[in-house]
């Protein structure tokens, strides 16, 4: 399942990434495999989304969230 | 003189800039908006009675692999021993509420082998959230001094100063990971090539040598060859390094962090977010805030602007009364002082706008605006982060274009820079006000909406729509260098720090005066010379003609009017007048005559020159620039051939559209050149904007005349 498929309030554990280049940026920001992420809210127009990860709030576009595979 | 150089390095939003202020006493701009500290900031600090330190505040970054233009400075400074800012000691500032992510950068910097220490900042907030960090154990495990403090509360500063002066010249940190396993042969070869002992430095050089300026072309080629020979896969190795570092940090932090009150965290921020980024209320509140900002820029500034204007009028009059009459006095007062007045008058608007923007950034709201606006902006080839420069464009494009530096994506940034000058800046305002008052009746619609006010508002809307449409066109023309992305921290909401707000006002106003000032003063002088002198043959003829007439006249009123006619005729025959007449055929289809032509030429230096030029051309006596007088003069102006008024509705609207779109600002051209490091972009901007202005004016005039 992809992170972009979650609704606000739902959470999952990061398993892997489908895009190498993007994964580097995401991991630097604390989105590591094994980390629990929770979708906090969507922007008013449905994209980007705000997630809670590694103890802080991060926002990213849905296209970027779709490279994160979760469980 | 400083005994040691200290660099502050850390993630965005860690209070690094607040700490810098505290250390140096030299207040600096900071914001919650990630990466707001763009320029290199330097200050001095007395560590002890005998030791002085130079403190360098480096841009906030999450890792040594840069994402944006200002982040790339960090590695450049830390890596290059010959860099003038290369530090003796690195102070790594970390947010105690989010230690693990902050320590990623710490472990990267540690591996570069510079003497360093760690500051655990925001410990007061961590305590509130129930987080306790065992500082002694952390220090032991990292092998460096760790100072717990709270820069906002001015807590722990003395300990930090002592720690800096106690830092040994030889680095003590424990190396967390063995970086050679990622590319053993390539690292070994680079180490030999660039003569370094440091494995991690060699690895970083392999990753980002293309962006490092301190290698020669030959060295670059050789490093490139090493990369190719060993199939160096940059992204893959970076990913592996990040994972390895986080794994190491997990062991470092084991049994060090005690977290008791997990529930209470982010309660305020969550609540605020649910209102401020609400599906319905989010945009509504944003638009309300925009209206407030817009209103503040114009209504709060009217009084100080009037004061400044009157001050300059007084200064000019005083100068003319007390300085010996002559060419130099005229140049000084009508050229330099008038030019200076034209700049300083905009300071209130710029100061108010940037104070408000800095409050919005400091509280964390601006990050939410970019979050909300990203989807819309992306459709037009921009990013959510383009919102800040574009709002800033309402006051002045010069500082706004500089603030586009924190847009990571090259294409998004270029498009933002290219369209920001289209947003109606405050320099266009006097032009609009003058022309609107001339042709739009002062009537109310529905009893409360002023027709003139609506027209002014329409000009702003037109400018924003134009900016967005141009961005859309550029989205398809400009080729992307890399994939656009939007991964951004949403900081917790905080109270603004008022000293920072004041500093921002000061800083931005200063930038504007220095950047725009140089050009405007130079142009004012050139314009003054061009408008005062002309081919001597023609001038002699005019002198002779009026001397003859004046000799026959005794009436003082008539004499004064003759003097005015003489000045007007001189202007017509001056170099500026000749220039205006030369371009008249080109601007006639737009409804402009040669007098407006002069104003257009002078406005290419700076738009605000319009009103001044108009008042010179329409020979308002005593240099008294009261709008009413110029307005009446302009209203009475007749076309000598047809006898019809010059400033019809069609001409005025055409002129306003021309000013809305044309690139009439030297300072912007200069700043775009500086920011893009090439003449290509400012030239494209100048051409497309001027072409757009010409076409829009042509259509408007031909339809309305």
Automatic annotation (TrEMBL), chain A:
- InterPro entries with a match to the protein in the record: Fe-transptr_FeoA-like, FeoA, FeoA_core_dom, Transcriptional_repressor_C
- Note whether Iron occurs among the keywords: yes
Q: Which UniProt keywords apply?
A: Iron
A Pfam family annotated for this UniProt entry: FeoA
Q: Name the domain of life this protein comes from.
A: Bacteria
Q: Does Nucleotide-binding count among this protein's keywords? A: no
All residue ranges annotated as the Ferrous iron transporter FeoA-like domain in the record: 1-71
**GO MF annotations, alphabetized:** transition metal ion binding
Name of the protein this chain belongs to: Ferrous iron transport protein A
